[in-house]
Protein: YceG-like family
Amino acid sequence: MALDSARSMKKILRFLFGLFINVCILFILVKAFSYSYDFAYQVFATRAADPGSNRKATIQITQDEPLLDVADSLKTAEVIKDKYAFILKVRIGGYADDIQPGTYQIAPSDTNQEIIEIITGNGKSSSGDSNGDSSDDSSGEDSAEE
Structure:
């Protein structure tokens, strides 16, 4: 009789342990899919880090500064949410070689695409003032060279 109760207790513990392992695996999968979705959303969506913010952050980009350092500066200034999503968006768009050195005023209310346009010189001239080669102030607009 004691042998039967030991066997049934062993079966119950084996079942509960298997159930616990399956729940842990399910939890990990849900977290992984959730993170993947959020990451992909940050890469492909046009949402700002802080849409309601009125503040501006000053970002300094030097000549030949690696993209990782640029993204790290933007993340530190809380202008972007995820530096790796920003890097991927820049690489997918083919803008990695177009980043211009200079000092830029960038707001957290700017989307990743707007930030890319600002730091590559293809965007709003009012949000960034580049210390680039251009010294001609006769025109109020920057022209895109494509």
